[in-house]
Write a structure and sequence with these properties.
The protein contains eight helices and six strands; from the N terminus they run ββαββαβαααααβα. The chain has helices spanning 41-48, 71-76, 93-97, 99-103, 108-121, 126-129, 139-151, 169-178; strands at residues 2-10, 16-25, 56-61, 64-65, 78-81, 157-160. α5 (108-121) packs across α7. It is globular, with a radius of gyration of 17 Å.
């Protein structure tokens, strides 16, 4: 479970980006943050994986305050798909998807199996796409690789910041249903 307990985030002397947020998201639940640009949706997500620290309040995952965990360890347990995708341009599709499993010491066989499984899930033919580089992919294909990478190590929490913005409407609906 992810919980926000009276969380506020201020940037400098400006108005708060997030004000006194209290929210519990149970295991297995999907939570969608909806609102206009600048209302604090991305800031809220970034406080879960400590890319942004709250000014006050507490964020917990399964009862553990995220501020008490080493940031790198925390982030390896959280899948995060950003709006701008963020693929490593010098790595192939397969290597991009495999980043976290390799950091976690998975066997190469297990990594390969997971890459194949996830590429199929996001609608990318493994035989065609695994050896390609991000520069030759369409925007929608890059976003789907980003989703696969975020899911690669079976994270306990998956954060998605407009992950399907560049994906065509038909594929977007299929991906949303599959996930």
């Amino acid at each position: 479970m992810v919980a926000f307990e009276h969380v506020t985030k201020r940037y400098g002397d400006g108005p708060p980006a997030v004000t006194d947020l209290t929210l519990e998201i149970g295991a297995g639940e999907v939570c969608v943050l909806v609102g206009p640009s600048g209302c604090g949706k991305t800031t809220t997500m970034k406080m879960v994986n400590r890319l942004v620290e709250p000014t006050s309040g507490r964020v917990t995952i399964d009862g553990q305050d995220v501020a008490s965990l080493p940031a790198v360890e925390l982030r390896r347990r959280i899948g995060y798909v950003i709006q701008q995708v963020g693929l490593f341009p010098h790595l192939t599709v397969a290597d991009n998807v495999a980043v976290v499993p390799k950091l976690l010491g998975w066997s190469q066989a297990r990594v390969n199996e997971r890459v194949e499984e996830l590429l199929e899930l996001v609608g990318l033919e493994p035989g065609t796409h695994r050896s390609r580089y991000p520069a030759v992919l369409s925007g929608g294909e890059r976003q789907r690789v980003g989703v696969a990478r975020a899911m690669a190590a079976d994270p306990t929490v998956l954060l998605m910041d407009e992950p399907f913005g560049a994906v065509d409407p038909i594929r977007r609906e299929r991906l949303q249903n599959d996930l």
